[in-house]
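Consider today's protein:

***
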Amino acid sequence: MGCRGIRIPGHRACLAHLDDSDRDAYLAGLAPGSDVDHRGTSFTEPLLNALLDALRDPATGHPRLGSARFDSATFEGDAQFGSAIFHGEARFESATFEGAPLFRSAIFQGDAGFESVNFHGEARFESAAFESAAWFRSATFQNSAVFSSANFGAYAGFASVTFRGNAWFRLASFRGDAWFRSATFEGDAHFGSATFENAAWFQLASFASHAGFERAVFERLARLGPLVCAAKLVLSGAVFSGPVNLSFAARHLECRRTRWSSTAEVRLRYATVDLSHAVFEYPLTIAAEQDPFVLAGGTQLPEVLLEDGADAAVRMASLRGVDAAHLVLADVDLSECLFSGTVHLDQVRLEGACLFAEVPPGLHWRRWPPVRFTRRRLLAEEHHWRACRPRAVPGWTPGGTDTVHVGPLQLAPVYRALRKAFEDGKHEPGAADFYYGEMEMRRNADDIPPAERRLLTAYWMLSGYGLRASRALLWLAAAMLATIVLLIGFGLPRDDPKQEATGIVPPGGGRVTFEIGKDDPRNPTGNRFTGERFEKALNIVLNSVVFRSADQELTTAGTYIEMTSRLTEPVLLGLAVLAVRNRVKR
């Protein structure tokens, strides 16, 4: 007959091919807790139910099996092992479940072997208890796999397993090592509120859809990665009690209210990270990985799920509610990051090329006067605020519908903290950009007194808060030109006053006393704007700005013009020098 099923002792056929009388006799000889060996046997649903009924404990109503061997068996219908108790080994290696296997609340007191099993229907293991090792290596779940509230007392091996439907491990408990190395999740993977009391290995795992570890607890060593996730990887509310090294290539990484109780390093590719209200008591490093992840043996993590033209840059979405005293960010894009509400932001460490948002480029003519913004680093929240203002120029990015908009009062301390962080990192040009942002927020804040607002506006117009050398030099050039014009027109006398010596010679000779005087400068008349007068005025202005008084005879108006020039123009020159220094200082 070509049957692969193992023969029943004393017979020449497997259980499926025994005649009715022999099968009834065999089943009648079984008792709760008996060992069974039906390797290679094909079970219809009625046949499996008859076997389990023969092993059912009258006291509890649940099947009790000793050692159970179902290697290479085929279950054609639904396999109802719910609440079954396996006192010995339960071996299902290479078995095929064509229906929906049910192991709900089953208890496996010995090793449970499901290696290379093919589950065609929905496999339900919720609330199952695996008191010894559980092996699912290379198993294939064609439909959903439900392990919610399952209890794995020792080793749980899911290496190289394939989940083609959703995989549910909510509230599962792993008291021994949990191996998901090279596991493939083609549907959603749910590990919410799962507990990993020992090592958790997810190296080379692949998630084609959502991967949720919300409120999961990792009490010891966690090797989450390198792994790839084509959608969102959720660690919100998860707890890492020991040191961890996380390596993810994922579209989105959500770590809201995640708690790290020891040192942690998170290395990422492609990811947009939401770290809102996360808690870390020790240094936490979030770094962008430039090249694909490679294991110690040289195995490279395949990124086929992510290779759709998007760059591998890592972007921070939010740091709101985070205490950044122990946070290190390396080579991440902060152009869309929300910072308001971050604590100890002045202590954050920014390493490598950390990018921030920039002002809209170009000259904008849609308002009068036209506006051109000088290039500088700024926060995404300033983009959102300016985009909502009346007469906002194009290019400012509005926030999303779920974005909490903040204004200058909230943004000024954020800029101040980031300025200090850049100064502590000896990055003075970057600190200058955030000083500019801080001053802009102060100037536009609602609680600022009018006199202070006017003072800050003048400071901004004259030199861009001491950071725009070109602006100060333009004002200096304009002031000098105005001074020259005023001196030519009103300050230089018509003629240079000539000195005269007068005295009386006594009769018969003797000592002569002379009195030296000169005429008072006379206001110019006639053609005032001549080359000679321009040269004199230019010398006076240059001396008053840079050197010293030119000692040129001036009219009364010219004297006051020069005094005003000597007061204002050196200040503008000093602002220009200060702006240059702020850009080149290290």
Notes: The chain is about 25% helix and 20% strand. The mean pLDDT is 86. The radius of gyration is 41 Å. The CA atoms of residues 394 and 412 lie 23 Å apart.
